[in-house]
Amino acid sequence: MLDDKKLKVLNFLQDFGCAKLEHLQVLFNDKNNNFKHVLVNNMVSKKGDIFIHNTKKIDEKMLVALDILCKYKNRLFKYYLGYKPIFISFLTKEHLLYHIIVADEENKNGIIKLVNSYPMSLPKADKLILAFNDDSELENIQCNIPFLYTTYPNLEVINE
């Protein structure tokens, strides 16, 4: 039988697909836990420090989105899986809705078109967090709502 805490972690991994150990420690407020208790029943496997649900694959863009989410942990009220291209949406304690969008070389032009055509193309949000692998696309973004632009993997904020 699964206890409540283990079930929450398993459900999280089933929804989000994968997460680093540090993500689980931050999001579940348990920095000393190694979360090995979720590795039973072949529901979750581990590669290095990444936990992967058995029906999913490692998604580097999701890991970037989770890195960003963890940076907002102290302001989080609720978070949930978004619909492509939104990886994660979250509501802050101040009742602001954020969408985290992660782009890579394959989809960055499409992401820029979607963001530039906001609000018709994306669900309503108070702020967007756009993560690109470099800062070269910042000048191409013209969005009617506030957004943060960050580069990964170091998550340096370029635009506030």
What's a quick, concise take on this entry?
By secondary structure, the chain is α+β, with helices and mostly antiparallel strands.
CATH topology of the largest domain: Trna Endonuclease, Chain: A, domain 1
Q: Between the first and last Cα atoms, what is the distance in angstroms? A: 47 Å
Rg calculated over all Cα atoms:
16 Å
How helical, in percent, are the residues?
25-40%
Mean pLDDT: 92
Give the biggest sheet. Answer: 6 strands, mixed
Query: What structural class do helix, strand and pairing data support?
Result: alpha+beta
Strand order of the largest sheet: 4-5-6-7-8-9
Overall domain count: 2
Under the CATH scheme, the architecture of the largest domain is 3-Layer(aba) Sandwich
Q: Please report which band the strand proportion falls in: under 5%, 5-15%, 15-25%, 25-35%, 35-45% or over 45%.
A: 25-35%
How many alpha or pi helices? Answer: 4
Class of the largest domain in CATH? Alpha Beta
Give the ordered list of helices and strands: HEHEEHEEEHEEE
Give a written overview of the molecule.
The chain is an alpha+beta fold and 160 residues long. The protein has two domains: 4-53; 60-159, Trna Endonuclease, Chain: A, domain 1. Helix content is 26%, strand content 28%. The protein is built from four helices and nine strands; from the N terminus they run H-E-H-E-E-H-E-E-E-H-E-E-E. The chain has helices at 4-16, 21-27, 60-71, 108-116; strands at 18-20, 44-47, 50-53, 76-81, 86-92, 97-102, 127-132, 147-151, 156-159. A six-stranded mixed β-sheet has the order 4-5-6-7-8-9, with helices on one face. The protein has a three-stranded antiparallel β-sheet with strand order 1-3-2. Helix 4 (108-116) links the parallel strand 6 and strand 7 (127-132).
